[in-house]
Amino acid sequence: MLLPPRAAHFPSRTPWSAGLATVLALALATAAPVAAGRARAAEPPYEARLAPYYGQHLDWHPCGKPAPHATAPQPTAARATAAAREGGFVCATVRVPLDYADPSGAEVPLAVARKPATGPGGRLGSLLLNPGGPGGSAVDFLTGYAGAHYPEAVRARYDLVGVDPRGVGHSAPVRCLDGPAMDRWAATDLTPDDAAETAALRRSFHGFADACRSRTGKLLGHVSTAEAARDLDIVRAVLGERRLDYVGASYGTYLGAMYADLFPRRVGRMVLDGAMDPSIGSRRLSLEEAAGFETAFRAFLRDCARREDCPLPATEAAANHTLAAFLAALDRTPLRTDDGKRRLTEAQATTGIIAALYTEAAWPALRQALGEASGSGKDGTTLLSMSDAYYERGANGHYSPLMAANAAVNCLDAPPAFTGPAAVRAALPDFEKASPVFGRALAWTALNCADWPHPATGTPHRVTAPGAPPIVVVGTTRDPATPYRWARSLAAQLDSGHLLTYDGDGHTAFNRGSTCVDTTLTTYLLTGTPPTPRTTCH
Description:
Elements: H1 16-28, H2 51-54, E1 61-62, H3 78-86, E2 90-97, E3 107-115, E4 125-130, H4 138-149, H5 152-157, E5 158-163, H6 179-187, H7 195-216, H8 225-238, E6 244-249, H9 251-262, E7 267-273, H10 282-304, H11 316-332, H12 346-356, H13 363-374, H14 381-390, H15 402-413, H16 421-434, H17 439-445, E8 471-478, H18 484-493, E9 497-505, H19 515-527, E10 535-537
Parallel strand pairs: 4-5, 4-6, 6-7, 7-8, 8-9, 9-10
Antiparallel strand pairs: 1-2, 2-3, 3-5
Helix pairs in contact: 1-14, 3-4, 8-9, 11-12, 12-14, 16-17
C-alpha cells in the first residue's frame, strides 16, 4: 500500500460500505500514502554478534492466544483473530536488534504469522508477504485475506508468512496522535491560501512529528527500510529457509528490492508488484505520483461518462473544473455529515476521492459519494467515510497505527521533498500541471517530513542486486500510486529483473482478477520460470 507522503487509506451508511471497506483495506493496505524510503546499507557487518538472533528458536502457537512464556505482545487484532483461529494460522515473535550498530542493546519484537502449506504437492518453503504502506500489517493481511484467497496452487505448496516490520502493526508500532487529535489532523487544510493557513498546516505537521517523538521514543529513529530488510534476513534464517521467497506490493516492493540489494545471493523467488523506483528523490516521487493519480482520475472520468449516475460533466476539462469548484466550496464551508461532531472538509474530500482511485472496484462508490455531496442534499457522509477508511479510522474514533508508521518510515528513508513553504510554492506550477485537481494538495503534503525529529538515514540509489536469481517486477499501466514508469525503471536497474506489464487500472495487479497475471506469477513462484520479455497481460 503506497500512501501520499502525509496521508494514507474508506465506509458509509449505505450498503456499499462493507464491501468497499474490504476492497480498500485489501487494495490500500495491500498497498498505503506515498514516498517510501531508500537507503543503501553496506553488506551487513557484525554477523558473529548477530548469531543469537539468527539462531533463536520460535515458539509457535495458535494466533489469538498468548505464546508460551511470552515476553512481548502477540497479534490480537479483532479483525484477524477469529480468522486466524479458524484458518489454522500460528503466530510467533522474532527478536531483532533495535540498532544493528549495537546488537547487544535493546531489542524489537516482530510479530509473525504463518499459514502452513495445504497440499497437495511437495512443500516449497516459506513465502513471505508484505502488503505495502509503509504501515500495512502483513500479519492482518495474511490472516484476514491471503491465507484464504491467495491462488490455491500457491497456498498448496508454500507456507504463507506475514511479518509486520518494526514499528508497524503488531511489531512495536509507532504511536503518534490520539483519536481526537488525528481527527483534527486529517481535516487540516492542505491547500493554504494565505500565511495564516500555511502556518496552521506547518503546525499540524510539526505537532504530528512531536507526538511521534514523545510517544514512540528511541524506536522512532530505527524504523528505516534498510533495518526492516535486515530484519527479514533474520526471519528467513529462523524459519529455516536458505533463500527468501517473497511477494511485496507497493511499498513492499521497495522493502523487497532493498533486501535483494543487501543479500542478493539469499534471494529466492521474488515478486515486486506495483513497483517503486528507489533511484528517485522524494520531490520527484511526489510529483510523479501526482501524475499517476491524474492518470487514474482520467480513467475514472472516461468510465463515469458512460454511467447514468455520473455526477460530473462528460468532458475532462469540464469535469476538472466542476470538481475543483466543489473542493474550493468545501474549503470555504465544510459539508454536513451524519457524524454530529465532524463535517467534511476539503482535505477529507480529497483524501476520499484519491482513495477510490486505488481500485476500479471503488468507482461506483465514488460516483455515489460525489453525487450525494454535490447534489441537492449536500451530504458529505459517504466521502467522509471513504476518507476514514483510508486512514483506518474505526467507528469508535480510534485510528490504527498505519499513518504513524507511514510517516516514520518515509521520513527516515529519504531526505524531505521540501524543507519549507517557499520551496513548495515554487514547485506548485509543476504539481498543478501534473494534476490540475490534486497537484496542489499533494505538493503541500510533501512538506510533512520537514520537521521530523530524526534526519533521514537513506538516500535515493539504484538497486542492482548482483548475482540474484530472476526477480519479477510487475507494473500496471494506469496505476495511481506507483506509476508504470517506476516498474520499468526498477526492472531495468536489477541485474536479473524481468518486467511483467498489466495493461489495466488500479493499484497492483497480482490476485486482482487478471487470469494472465495470476497464471504468470503462480508459474514463476512454483517453478522459478520468469515471464518472457515484453510479456503484457490485459
